[in-house]
């Protein structure tokens, strides 16, 4: 079994207003048909960055750097391509192209292009 560690920072409020950092580890079994892939993209304004794709059974995730922070995107149903969401952010790939958008910010849609072989669907 391969462990995929996904980090999440959590703020814990207390009477003294102290904060603590928590780490979350989610064990995912990686079988013969599952994989973890890396893909580099170049986008309009976000520049170049690597995306990690985790495909393990029913779990399909993408890890993207957003505003200096690693965000976990979850695959959702899409008519075409692969669509991942994290809060207000949408990462949508099809072939060697992708888009990144913050649905709460008008005009935030960015076009992206894979810099090497595209990830499998």
H/E topology pattern: EEEEEEEEEE
The strand line-up of the biggest sheet is 3-4-5-6-7-8-9-10
What would you give as the CATH superfamily of the domain at 32-114?
C-type lysozyme inhibitor
CATH architecture of the domain at 32-114: Beta Barrel
Q: Overall 3D geometry? A: globular
Which percent range describes the beta-strand content?
Answer: over 45%
How would you portray this structure in words?
Mean pLDDT is 81; it is low at 1-18. The chain has a domain at 32-114: Beta Barrel (Lipocalin), CATH 2.40.128. The chain has 121 residues and is mainly beta. An 8-stranded antiparallel beta barrel has the order 3-4-5-6-7-8-9-10. A two-stranded antiparallel sheet has the order 1-2. The radius of gyration is 16 Å and the shape is globular. The chain is built from no helices and 10 strands. It has strands at 3-4, 26-27, 35-43, 47-56, 59-66, 69-76, 82-86, 89-94, 97-102, 110-114.
What brief labels describe this structure?
single chain, 121 residues, mainly beta, Lipocalin, 8-stranded antiparallel barrel, 0% helix, 50% strand, globular
